[in-house]
Amino acid sequence: MTDQGNELRTGTGSGRGDDGPAPRVRLRDRDAELRSVEAAVDRLCREFAAGGTEIGELLAFSGRPGIGKTSLLHEVRRIASLRQGACVLFARGGERQFKEPYHVLRQLLQPVLTRLEPDEFSQVMGTWEEVVGPAMGLKQPKAGARRLDPQGVRDGLDYVLTQLAPRRAPMVMIVDDLHWADAESLSWLAKFAVRSAELPVLLVFAFREDENDWPDETQELRRGVLNLASRKHELSRLTLSSVTDMVRAELGDKAEDAFCYEFWNVVNGNPFEAGRLLDQVRDQELEPVEENSRQLRELAVDATGMTLKSWLDRLGPATLRFAWACAMLGTDIRIDLATRISTQSTEGARESIKQLRKQRVLTQAPNGNLEFVHPLIASSIYNTMPEATRLGMHGIAAVEIENAGLGLLAASRHLVETHSGEGDDRIVKKLRRAAVEHQLIGAPEAAQRCLHRALNEPPADDIKAEVLYELGCSALLTDPSATVNQLRLALDPEEGPLRPELRVDATFRLSEVLAHSGELGQAALVCQEEAEKTTDPVRRQRLQAASFMWHAFRKSEEDGPGRSARLAELYRNLTGREAADRAVLAMRAWDLTLRGEPSTEALALADEVLDGGRLPKGLGWTDTTWGFELPSMLCLTYIYNDRVAQAERLAADAIIQFEVAGWSGAHRGFAYFLMGLARFRRGLLAEAEDFLRRAYRISERIGAKLPLAWDAVGVLVDTLIARGRVDEAWALANEFGFHPPYHATAMVLPDAASLYGKLLVAANRHAGAAAALTEAGAQLKVRGWHNTVWAPWAGHLAVAIAADEPERAREYAQEAVRDARRFGTASAIGTALRLQAAISDGRQAVELLEQAVEHLGQSPAGYEHAVALVDLGAALRRVGRLEDAQEYLYQGIELAQHCSAEKLVDRARQELANYGLRPNRLGLHDFQDTLEALSGPERDVAKLAVRGVPPQRIAEQLGVHLSLVNRRLAAVYRKAGTGPDGLASALGLPQRQVEGSEE
């Protein structure tokens, strides 16, 4: 066979299990592309060998069908596989499989992941094994597993590749026919292409340039991939000289120039079309002379636009039916399956394969399965199938795939293509089961396709509403509007009966998605109306409690005190401590907290909800009966009642459980927010900022200005103010729009108007602050909410108006202190007293601040305590008590440093310096103290870093991952209070460069 024949008829292996380099093929007119490939692979291998890790890039090849992309990628695989130590991963999209979830990613990752030793597999997977494993087909979901959030699967894949790439580096990931990649794989690849620059990974994608060749749902991802490519190549058609060489290599030197020129014109320089036309010329024994040039166009039509008749003429009915079965299966075709789908005998299938290989339709992959020589041939054959034949064979394929033990996930692609309208209960059951399995691997869109097809069957009247309910739930994490529409249909009596327990659950799910979309009033009304129709007391209580819950999160409410009274009545009527009863306790505790009732009452109720300090069964973070709002209420109750450590334990559990469950959307975003809020309340401002920014990023990824974004931005603004970065806080608030009218329907946590007023005070815009805080106070009083920690409007309003209206300011400050004392937490009282002191003078200010320091010293509010200490030191200095002032200012500096409140530290030092006092206490932190503050592993990395050992080498010497080294170094810098340049001095260690032998 000629070189050109090799180019056209090989190079299409699956990449599954073929460890050795592929045979070299001859490529024409691709010198520039091959140089680019060589350069990219050289750079990857060279820089990785030199210790580089952040060296990834994306190489993209595009062009029209048949232009030679596959042959070029075949050469890329060969080049990369020849490099010592290189790991080459390969996958191909399939026209028939672009709706098969994770089809491309499974091809890429299954081979390398299944070859890992058990210990290494566990390290690579980390906590994501139960998320990534099922999605990649490496294991079955656990019994009772919940649906996976697609974003969670993508996040898990990010983690796995971040762990895998350094272990198998340098890594080359190749994807052919990207335009037919399934949406699940493509969405991850598009995002990973951004992160690949941080890893030793070369991505190589090949796809059709024409947008019409891409499914509509992947057009945006296509543009994203194109924009990321560092090297882009659009393959051009072959030159006349190359095509002439091809013709003469196949037909001999006797081929005349005129014939070759016409041949080149007919195929338009397309290698695939040239190969097919050469086959026709040879089969017809056409002499390559000028007189026969005009016949080329007729042959070309037959060669590239194969009709049913032309394929029948070439193959015969039996062989064509086998080819149809192969075209339906797509890529990596199992011979046994194709044989059964085509209803042939083993001997008949053997003859069909022989004929199809002879006709250059199929080739054998390295793993023994079959592949089409080119996807254009597969498309041509599939498109010739009569509709009735196609529908029937898809039905056979679904049965045979399931019988072969490949499961409903694989069979469902064919089930959705079968003829509908028969009302076959078996088909409906299989589609519903397939939908469940798709959700368990994080593929809700595939689940929805199955359920839509089930509705078209159609299902029996008595289960139609159930199918609609399942369809609505399948879109819960990805498409809120679809969820609302389908659940409303499921609840519509005209669609058929819905079992009582499902009816209650459908109502709750509908209210949940309405609430997450900001329609809290509508969410509460839906539950309230259904509760009135529900006779079962347990189910009715669930709906009543849900209605109260959504009202509690509303921005405004017509009868806040009345709702609170009705909730109190519901609480008094509780008779047990089942999940529904505990849910009412949690809501009552949060309601008492917002109302500013004695903290002991709220905490007593909150503690009753927990079981041994943990969330009870039925109220867990991933429990779908109540959703994550109820445990969130409990966590918020502890945060605002000075039990921050308990709140952090709950928030940490939430983060872990959402990660394990693969829920990486709003659920995990809110968990990050709760942890950020808890850290802010403790005064750990740097950590709070990190968690809040993570929550904000997740929110922006989901949608614009969701309630979660308002929550995260509000507390982030407060955190930046505390750190002294007022200008940055002001810029963030303006950029986001954190100002009136705030979110249209949802309450912001904490109170948005109070936070905005506090920002205006910090920015010295006192007139605006006075107006905003006065309005906030009026609205909060209408609802009966007097918590001075959640909404500290009165104390800050006093500060805002003190210069112009001192008497009114004193009234507001006293009101804040009264409300705080009624609530009773140390942080509430201490903060209110500190703000009252801010508008007082002399001895009165000192007395108030001494009380504030005493209270705050008994609270977890570290930053507020630091502010009170510095304020007290400044007030003592003003009344001449310099020795006492010095002591409190030193304490304030220490605590402010711990809180990362940089501007507060500067302010305290300035107070000391202005009056001749030392701005730093001598001997406060000597070298030994700092070293002792480090853990053993932190000391190990610190000593190596001081010697100039780079992080990558530290990881190698200590036998740990680079990411762990970087985390430990960050802790060292934070505790030492310096960056790399000052680390040796801060630790009292000698600094020297690493010896050459240690490189």
Automatic annotation (TrEMBL):
Residues 30-204 form the Orc1-like AAA ATPase domain. Residues 1-25 are annotated as: Disordered. The keyword Nucleotide-binding applies. Pfam families: AAA_16 (PF13191). Keywords: ATP-binding, Nucleotide-binding. Gene3D superfamilies: Tetratricopeptide repeat domain, Winged helix-like DNA-binding domain superfamily/Winged helix DNA-binding domain. Residues 16-25 have a biased composition (Basic and acidic residues). The keyword Nucleotide-binding applies. Transmembrane segments: none annotated. This is AAA family ATPase. The lineage of its organism: Bacteria, Bacillati, Actinomycetota, Actinomycetes, Kitasatosporales.
